[in-house]
Amino acid sequence: MELELWWLLGIPVFFGLGWVAARVDIRQLVSESRTLPRGYFKGLNFLLNEQPDKAIDAFIEIVRMDPESADMHFALGNLFRRRGETERAIRVHQNLLARPDLPVEQKEHAQYELGMDYLKAGLLDRAEETFNAMLHGQYAVQARKALLEIFQREKEWQRAIEAALALQEAGAGSRQKEIAQFYCELAQDALVHLHPQDALVLLEKSLQADRVNVRATMLIGDAQLAQGDVEAALLTWRRVEQISVPHTALVAQRMMDGYSKVGRAQEGVNLLKSYLEQASSIDLIEVVYKAVLELDGVGAAKQLVVDELRRTPTLLGLDKLLEARLMDAPVSVVSELSMVKNLVHGYTQKLARYQCSHCGFKARQFYWQCPGCSRWETYPPRRTEELNVMN
């Protein structure tokens, strides 16, 4: 009973101590907030209202009043870089690094930000030098990521492979798809310089990194063709279907040319028609249409386009149908059909784009690496209008 009474008496005491502690914390918080310059809150308010110009002016004023404020320097430098004023950002971060009293952690932070300034400014040699000096500190992973970006920009693919492997070993996630693409870049360069055997060695390494890499499979076929082995190339290109049927549109013209070269054009047409049934594509239709037109005539070509237009109604398909209609149209309607086709064709030029699934960047041609966001394998192998119809 005495113990219970003691606890009852202790409850108000504990409550009072908590109240006092809270009051002390509040007073300390208020005291600290009063020591902050008014310009800090003005700058923060401008940032929240998406007014970076006014925020910069406010932070510059704080730095003038308190030149020792490292945090304000970091904020100011980042704002300059975001606005594209890289020279001013570089000066801010260089000034920070020149301070002898700057703690080690903040010095590494300033060095990393300076490297990012150089990268944004396109001073890749200076950026590389800066990040190479940071491979063993707290910003090691971020520095390796920046170096990987630099090597890709400079198209130094072997160094990019080494940087990607280092990132994997550092626990920054798998980079196998990127590594496979880097080997593809090296292989493509070997093919351009007429070294198909070297290309095949590199492409085998690409497939070791990513067994379902469509590009590597396509390039292996190109290398075999460069060696004169058309049949081997055709067998390799047919493996694209096993990886991704929509991507067969990218290899369709190669296949049709190969089948024609070995005297089996009709077999090639029949194969590509089977791909159309699985994954309709205006690019695939284009290849099959030309082949059917040459082998079976205008009537068969028109019927092919009509069937595909019924299956996937798009303006791109309609444009191709009007082209087929014009081939054997009566003279009396040729003028009208031509006018309609020109109108449709002009509009379809805006729709005949590939679009990055990550950043939305549109391009007339297919890219393995997006020119907008630099990510790999973000372009679906279909045009934007076809994707909209499918969705």
Q: How many helix segments? A: 20
Average pLDDT score: 81
CATH architecture level-2 label of the domain at 68-173: Alpha Horseshoe
- Poorly predicted tracts of residues: 19-36, 39-44, 59-67
The count of β-strands is: 2
Helix fraction by DSSP (H/I, runs of at least 4): over 70%
Strand order of the largest sheet: 1-2
User: In whole angstroms, how far apart are the ends?
Assistant: 74 Å
**The CATH homologous superfamily of the domain at 68-173:** Tetratricopeptide repeat domain
CATH-defined fold name of the domain at 68-173: Serine Threonine Protein Phosphatase 5, Tetratricopeptide repeat
Shape descriptor reads elongated
Instruction: Give the SSE string.
Output: HHHHHHHHHHHHHHHHHHHEEH
CATH class of the domain at 68-173: Mainly Alpha
Radius of gyration in whole Å, from Cα? 32 Å
Description:
The chain has 391 residues and is mainly α. Among the domains are: 2-27; 68-173, Alpha Horseshoe (Serine Threonine Protein Phosphatase 5, Tetratricopeptide repeat), CATH 1.25.40.10; 175-243, Serine Threonine Protein Phosphatase 5, Tetratricopeptide repeat (Alpha Horseshoe). 75% of the residues lie in helices and 1% in strands. It contains 20 helices and 2 strands. The chain has helices spanning 2-35, 38-48, 52-65, 70-82, 86-97, 104-121, 124-132, 140-153, 157-169, 176-192, 196-209, 214-226, 230-243, 248-261, 265-278, 282-296, 298-311, 315-327, 331-351, 384-390, and strands spanning 354-355, 362-363. It has a two-stranded antiparallel sheet with strand order 1-2. Strand 1 and strand 2 (362-363) form a beta hairpin. Helix 7 (124-132) runs antiparallel to helix 8 (140-153), helix 12 packs antiparallel against helix 13 and helix 13 (230-243) runs antiparallel to helix 14 (248-261). The protein is elongated. 34% of the residues are buried. Mean pLDDT is 81; it is low at 19-36, 39-44 and 59-67.
